[in-house]
Specification:
alpha+beta, four-stranded antiparallel β-sheet, about 30% helix, oxidoreductase, Oxoglu/Fe-dep_dioxygenase_dom
Length: about 350
């Protein structure tokens, strides 16, 4: 009798919680027409731990902090003229006006002009990011267009691979039995939306959450450092650590919102008391379609402030804003960068990664 009850109970849980192999693939694209590697793998492959690709370019010799950006050197201003390049080393007669030579200097310790152009390009991009970014309130910073196209592509690839494996995407349920309006996957530790606790295994199917890729952690570290620079620029006498403390993420909740999905106003308060008391921040990365994001001091949506989060944006809230109420009211259809959606064969909707330290 007990075995029969156990069997019925298992079937009940499976019917509610078993992942449905959600791959974030655009269903309107026929099989074979999308980007390479986007087809759903076999069941045998889905059970294997996916190999996580590096987010850094093997060909770049620039420092790690430069690798977070897609450095684009203007062909007109920063690359040598093709005809002159074929003639050999530069001379006053064939030097490209205002250009950057690719010739290696005699002294190998001296950086080439192309390297100098790349670093200058990075500095211009950084200044542009700081100008577009803003402090929404004490402890809450929005870094606009912070994640490059290349890194967004790689994040999608990693999340797609992890999402099809053990502990991957599923549609969680509330205690009432109703399903949440999103697909979810946890990295590092599992968050149970019914019990409001973190756990080492996902209670609904016993799956162990995949680890957080080191490259993701580096992105979070750089974003927090960038937020400190912005705070320091706006408030020179303030210690940025007091506004947004540094943290080492050991939890990442990955959500995918379809066009009709949303998430009501809530607080992220299930981390440890120590983490919450220190105000260790939540770092949120947006990829895909834009979303209307609300935040405020209470759960009243009518009093909340709205900001649009676009693909590549990073939102950070900690310190005095660690307990801010926040939520997603709607997804703005067809707002994802067209090149990103096409190249990644990304399903319409928004991919969101939120990092925190337990």
């Amino acid at each position: 009798m007990f075995s029969s009850l156990h069997s019925l109970s298992s079937e009940f849980w499976r019917s509610r919680y078993v992942p449905d192999a959600f791959a974030m693939v655009d269903p309107s694209v026929k099989k074979g027409q999308g980007s390479a590697g986007n087809e759903r793998p076999s069941s045998a492959k889905r059970r294997q731990s996916p190999k996580i690709p590096s987010l850094q370019s093997d060909s770049s010799s620039l420092p790690a902090d430069v690798l977070s950006f897609s450095v684009r050197v203007s062909e007109e201003e920063n690359l040598p003229n093709t005809q002159n390049h074929q003639k050999g080393p530069e001379t006053p007669e064939n030097k490209t006006p205002g250009g950057c030579s690719s010739e290696v200097p005699v002294n190998p310790s001296t950086p080439s002009r192309l390297d100098i152009c790349k670093v200058k390009n990075r500095e211009i991009r950084k200044a542009s990011l700081q100008k577009a970014s803003e402090i929404l309130r004490p402890g809450m910073v929005l870094l606009k267009n912070y994640i490059s196209h290349a890194d967004q592509m790689k994040i999608i690839k990693v999340c797609r691979d992890l999402g099809l494996g053990a502990g991957g995407f599923y549609r969680p349920c509330f205690e009432s039995g109703g399903k949440m309006n999103l697909q979810m996957m946890c990295l590092g530790m599992n968050w149970d939306p019914e019990k409001k606790v973190y756990e080492k295994r996902r209670s609904v199917d016993g799956a162990v959450p995949p680890g957080i890729p080191d490259e993701f952690k580096q992105i979070v570290k750089r974003a927090v450092t960038e937020s400190h620079a912005l705070v320091k620029e706006k408030h020179r006498k303030c210690n940025p650590e007091d506004r947004i403390p540094s943290m080492q993420p050991d939890i990442c909740i990955v959500n995918f919102y379809a066009r009709t999905d949303n998430l009501g106003l809530h607080q992220d308060k299930d981390e440890s008391k120590e983490s919450l008391d220190k105000g260790l921040p939540v770092v949120s990365i947006s990829i895909g379609d834009s979303a209307n994001f609300l935040y405020g001091d209470d759960g009243d949506a009518g009093k909340a402030t709205k900001v649009v989060l676009e693909s590549g944006d990073v939102l950070i809230f900690g310190g005095k804003s660690r307990h801010v109420f926040h939520g997603i009211t709607s997804i703005l259809p067809d707002t994802a960068p067209k090149a990103l959606a096409a190249e990644a064969n990304l399903r319409p909707g928004r991919l969101n990664l939120t990092f925190r330290e337990y």
